[in-house]
Each structure stands twice: as C-alpha cells, then as structure tokens.
C-alpha cells in the first residue's frame, strides 16, 4: 500500500519505517528542512534502539523516502498519517495548531481520495476539526467532488522500545465512522497483529479518549506508588515489598508499580494536563487525575528534599555527580525529565553538577543552555563521580545497575548516594559503607 506519514519525530519516523518494513511504500514528510536533509542522507535525528538499521535497510530497498513537500508525500498515497507534536499550550490545553496546519496543507494539495489518519494524541473533537478544515478548503478550491475519510488511530509505543511496540502492539485502536475505511485500516495493520492481538474498531470520540485514558491510568499508578513510598519512609515500610505484595494480585498486576523521582517525558505530563482540561471544558471535575499531577510535581523535589536535609539549604561549594538525564532509559528525550527540576534546584542553591548520560547529553546541553557554566558534562559514568560530595541517580540506565562500589568510594569525596530509581539494595549499600538514600525504602540515616 502507499502511505504518507507527516511528522518525522519519535512517532512518525517509527510509524513510517515500520510500515515500510512490512513491504509498503512510504513517504515521510516534515516541515523541518534540516531534519529531512539529514534523513535523506540516512542520518537519524533521534536515538531509538534499532531505528538506524531499519531506516537504512528500507531506504536501500526503495520503500522509504523523505521530503519536505506534502504534495509529493500524498501524491500516490491511500493513507496519510498525521504524527506531529501536540504540546501543552496555554492553561494546559493541548496545542493542536500543527495538526490544523497539516490539515490545511493536505486539503490544498490532495487531488484524489485519501484516508487521513490521526496518530497524534489529541483532544476529543480534533478529528471533526480536521474534517471541517479540509471540507472548507476543498470548497474554496471548488473540489468538493474529492472524497476523504478521517480516522483516529492513537499510538501507544514507548520511546526506548518503540520498534518492538510498533511491530508487536498489545492492541490497535481505530476510531472511524465508516465500515469500508475500518476494513482498509484492518488490512494495513494485519501483519502487525497476525490474528493474535486485537484490532479494536470504535467511534472516533472513544478512540481519541482512549489514548488519554491509557496515559492517565499509567500516570496514576506511578503517582499512587510514589505516595505509598512517602508513607513507607515515614512509617518504616519498604515499597519494594509493598509492590510485590500488591502486584502479585492479578487484579492489580506488576507493571508500572515503581516508586521513583516522578514521571516525565513528552506524553504523561502533557496528556494528564490535557485530559484535566477536557474535563473542565465539559463540566467534569477530573479530581483523581488532578491529584496524580500534583503528586508528581512534588515527587520531582523528593530527592532534593532528602539532599537538603543532609547537606543544609545552602549548597554553595558542593559538587554533585549525576547519573542519567533523559526522562527514562534508552532514549535521548529530555522533555519534562525530572533531572531538569532536580539539577536546576541544586544549581539555584549554589551547587555545581557533573553529569553523565549515555544518550541525552546533546539534548541536555540545549535544556541547560542558560546555566551551562555550572554543569560539566562527561562521557563516562566514572568521570561523573570524581571528587563529588554525593552521587545522584536520576535515570535507571542498565549500565548503572551494578557499579563497582569500591571504585565508587575511592573516587567520591564522600560515599553518599541519592538514588531516585531504587537501583540498589539498601543492606548492601550499608555493608559497603555507603550512606544511601532512596525512595520509600526507609533508608534515611
Ligand atoms: P516530535 O516532536 O518528536 O515530532 C513531531 C514532528 O512533527 C517534528 O519532527 C516536527 O518538525 C514535525 N512537524 C511539526 N509541524 C509540522 C508540520 N506542519 N508539517 C510537517 N511536520 C511537522 O513528536 P512525537 O514525540 O513524535 O509525538 C507526536 C505525537 O504523537 C504527539 O501528539 C504525541 O503526544 C504522540 N505520541 C508520542 C509518543 C512518544 O513516545 N513520543 C507516544 C505516543 C504518542
């Protein structure tokens, strides 16, 4: 099948590449000319495991092309996917201006039937906005004869495991009001599910809501565990035991029950805000989700609170090593990363930071451009601990899991670790002479 994907970010590039890998002919379009120039040379602008190889292979085999011109992208396409950003706008409302701009461009350039599939996460009603924009443009062009369909097809991939998630999705959600379009969408996705996992056909509104409901539910589990962890720290329990104790109940399940330094990333924070807003616009008070957001905002400061208790409010002259900057492992994405809040607070209080992350340093340099003189970036985890007053673990990259504790002790000024991802066993840290602080494991000295 011929496919156009508009937006070559984390979602668009994965979508286009995976469709191409199934034998489809795919044109990927982006407004960012630099990005397209690099992609045409086979250079990937983001870090995502396995993506480079898959893009190269599909380009070489002639199934994957890149362009800045929507006209070229949709020329032969039956499906046109929209995968542009929908960041938080004013007052927490999702900013769908990029979607509107794309809808406009499609309607100016289309000259045959097209199935327009929205993959971006958007508030309820966006599909009908897209429909109206296109109808109006076609009317202005006097091309009301051109037919099109709108589909809502939210994406559930996780950065860091995006190819695996796209190739083997738990489910595909398709929101459409047209039976024929539903059948075509099913055909397109059949190779990814191969009669195992469901393709769920539903109305457009339910599909748009499903994505927000999924992210809000996952964020709720995280904030719930973070709140429990704080209680553990006060009453003397261990959140690791509590997690096993509840997760083994099949009604609850184990995934997404980790306490930590708070959730971040390009999706949970903005989607939680957006659904709260959808509620208030429609007279529904989203009390649970509002609390989830509040707990998360506070949680990003939890490690800093521990650190201030230990070192005092004024951190002038103190130097901290940081392991992990990305909002989670296996990505270079720094959007809304807890590391931003933590590092800024330390710098504000006079400290300096030596930071290491396997992939996110280039992104971090942009985020911390205004305070670069207080942060030193290093290309090795060992260099980040030289002569530091404490090590702070913020992202749970695999390579941080089993450090050589003797070596750590030798290089640090004092053997103190603040672990925002509960990577180490408190008893082992104690036996090895570390002062160890973590989340909800009752580890304060
Ligand atoms: P991104 O910021 O990585 O990429 C968006 C791309 O769209 C950019 O390359 C940008 O240049 C391009 N773009 C913007 N305006 C354009 C226009 N008018 N024409 C052509 N291209 C344009 O975003 P992302 O992380 O891929 O997210 C895209 C959407 O998917 C968002 O709605 C997001 O919420 C949703 N989503 C993201 C993830 C994720 O893990 N990142 C997962 C599921 C869903």
From TrEMBL:
<feature type="binding site">
    <location>
        <begin position="156"/>
        <end position="159"/>
    </location>
    <ligand>
        <name>substrate</name>
    </ligand>
</feature>
<dbReference type="InterPro" id="IPR028357">
    <property type="entry name" value="UDPglc_DH_bac"/>
</dbReference>
<dbReference type="Pfam" id="PF03721">
    <property type="entry name" value="UDPG_MGDP_dh_N"/>
</dbReference>
<dbReference type="InterPro" id="IPR036291">
    <property type="entry name" value="NAD(P)-bd_dom_sf"/>
</dbReference>
<feature type="binding site">
    <location>
        <position position="264"/>
    </location>
    <ligand>
        <name>substrate</name>
    </ligand>
</feature>
<feature type="binding site">
    <location>
        <position position="121"/>
    </location>
    <ligand>
        <name>NAD(+)</name>
    </ligand>
</feature>
<dbReference type="Pfam" id="PF00984">
    <property type="entry name" value="UDPG_MGDP_dh"/>
</dbReference>
<feature type="binding site">
    <location>
        <position position="35"/>
    </location>
    <ligand>
        <name>NAD(+)</name>
    </ligand>
</feature>
<feature type="binding site">
    <location>
        <position position="335"/>
    </location>
    <ligand>
        <name>NAD(+)</name>
    </ligand>
</feature>
<dbReference type="Pfam" id="PF03720">
    <property type="entry name" value="UDPG_MGDP_dh_C"/>
</dbReference>
<comment type="similarity">
    <text>Belongs to the UDP-glucose/GDP-mannose dehydrogenase family.</text>
</comment>
<comment type="function">
    <text>Catalyzes the conversion of UDP-glucose into UDP-glucuronate, one of the precursors of teichuronic acid.</text>
</comment>
<feature type="binding site">
    <location>
        <position position="86"/>
    </location>
    <ligand>
        <name>NAD(+)</name>
    </ligand>
</feature>
<feature type="binding site">
    <location>
        <position position="159"/>
    </location>
    <ligand>
        <name>NAD(+)</name>
    </ligand>
</feature>
<dbReference type="GO" id="GO:0051287">
    <property type="term" value="F:NAD binding"/>
</dbReference>
<comment type="pathway">
    <text>Nucleotide-sugar biosynthesis; UDP-alpha-D-glucuronate biosynthesis; UDP-alpha-D-glucuronate from UDP-alpha-D-glucose: step 1/1.</text>
</comment>
<feature type="binding site">
    <location>
        <position position="270"/>
    </location>
    <ligand>
        <name>NAD(+)</name>
    </ligand>
</feature>
<dbReference type="InterPro" id="IPR014026">
    <property type="entry name" value="UDP-Glc/GDP-Man_DH_dimer"/>
</dbReference>
<dbReference type="GO" id="GO:0003979">
    <property type="term" value="F:UDP-glucose 6-dehydrogenase activity"/>
</dbReference>
<dbReference type="InterPro" id="IPR017476">
    <property type="entry name" value="UDP-Glc/GDP-Man"/>
</dbReference>
<dbReference type="InterPro" id="IPR014027">
    <property type="entry name" value="UDP-Glc/GDP-Man_DH_C"/>
</dbReference>
<dbReference type="InterPro" id="IPR001732">
    <property type="entry name" value="UDP-Glc/GDP-Man_DH_N"/>
</dbReference>
<feature type="binding site">
    <location>
        <begin position="256"/>
        <end position="260"/>
    </location>
    <ligand>
        <name>substrate</name>
    </ligand>
</feature>
<keyword id="KW-0560">Oxidoreductase</keyword>
<feature type="domain" description="UDP-glucose/GDP-mannose dehydrogenase C-terminal">
    <location>
        <begin position="321"/>
        <end position="426"/>
    </location>
</feature>
<dbReference type="GO" id="GO:0006065">
    <property type="term" value="P:UDP-glucuronate biosynthetic process"/>
</dbReference>
<feature type="active site" description="Nucleophile">
    <location>
        <position position="267"/>
    </location>
</feature>
<feature type="binding site">
    <location>
        <position position="211"/>
    </location>
    <ligand>
        <name>substrate</name>
    </ligand>
</feature>
<dbReference type="GO" id="GO:0000271">
    <property type="term" value="P:polysaccharide biosynthetic process"/>
</dbReference>
<feature type="binding site">
    <location>
        <position position="328"/>
    </location>
    <ligand>
        <name>substrate</name>
    </ligand>
</feature>
<keyword id="KW-0520">NAD</keyword>
<feature type="binding site">
    <location>
        <position position="30"/>
    </location>
    <ligand>
        <name>NAD(+)</name>
    </ligand>
</feature>
<dbReference type="InterPro" id="IPR008927">
    <property type="entry name" value="6-PGluconate_DH-like_C_sf"/>
</dbReference>
<dbReference type="InterPro" id="IPR036220">
    <property type="entry name" value="UDP-Glc/GDP-Man_DH_C_sf"/>
</dbReference>
<protein>
    <recommendedName>
        <fullName>UDP-glucose 6-dehydrogenase</fullName>
        <ecNumber>1.1.1.22</ecNumber>
    </recommendedName>
</protein>
């Amino acid at each position: 099948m011929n496919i156009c994907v508009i937006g070559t970010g984390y979602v668009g590039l994965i979508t286009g590449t995976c469709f191409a890998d199934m034998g489809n002919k795919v044109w990927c379009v982006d407004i960012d000319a630099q990005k397209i120039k690099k992609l045409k040379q086979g250079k990937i602008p983001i870090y995502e495991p396995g993506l480079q190889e898959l893009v190269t292979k599909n380009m070489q085999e002639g199934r994957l092309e890149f362009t800045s011109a929507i006209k070229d992208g949709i020329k032969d396409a039956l499906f046109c996917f929209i995968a542009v950003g929908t960041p938080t706008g004013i007052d927490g409302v999702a900013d769908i201006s990029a979607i509107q701009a794309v809808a406009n461009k499609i309607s100016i350039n289309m000259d045959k039937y097209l199935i327009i599939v929205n993959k971006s996460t958007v508030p309820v009603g966006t599909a009908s906005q897209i429909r109206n924009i296109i109808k109006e443009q076609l009317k202005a062009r006097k091309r009301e004869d051109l037919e099109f369909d709108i589909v809502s097809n939210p994406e559930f991939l996780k950065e860091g495991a995006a190819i695996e998630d796209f190739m083997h999705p738990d489910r595909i959600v398709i929101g459409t009001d047209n039976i024929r379009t539903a059948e075509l969408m099913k055909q397109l996705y059949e190779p990814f599910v191969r009669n195992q996992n469901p393709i769920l056909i539903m109305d457009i509104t339910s599909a748009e809501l499903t994505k927000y409901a999924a992210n809000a539910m996952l964020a709720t589990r995280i904030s719930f565990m973070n709140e429990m962890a704080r209680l553990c720290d006060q009453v003397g329990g261990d959140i690791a035991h509590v997690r096993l104790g509840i997760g083994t109940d099949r009604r609850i399940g184990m995934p997404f029950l980790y306490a930590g330094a708070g959730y971040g990333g390009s999706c949970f924070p903005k989607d939680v805000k957006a659904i709260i807003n959808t509620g208030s616009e429609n007279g529904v008070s989203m009390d649970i989700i509002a609390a989830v957001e509040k707990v998360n905002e506070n949680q990003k400061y939890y490690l800093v609170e521990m650190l201030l208790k230990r070192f005092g409010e004024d951190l002038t002259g103190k130097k901290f090593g940081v392991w992990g900057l990305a909002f989670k492992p296996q990505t270079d994405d720094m959007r809304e990363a807890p590391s931003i809040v933590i590092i800024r607070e330390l710098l504000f209080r006079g400290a300096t930071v030596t930071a290491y992350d396997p992939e996110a340093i280039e992104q971090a340099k942009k985020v911390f451009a205004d305070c670069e003189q207080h942060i030193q970036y290093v290309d090795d985890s060992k260099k980040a601990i030289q002569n530091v007053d404490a090590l702070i673990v913020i992202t749970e990259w695999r390579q941080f899991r089993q450090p050589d504790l003797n070596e750590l002790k030798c290089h640090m000024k004092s053997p103190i670790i603040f672990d925002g991802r509960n990577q180490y066993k408190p008893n082992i840290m104690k036996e090895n002479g570390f002062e160890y602080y973590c989340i909800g494991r009752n580890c304060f000295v």
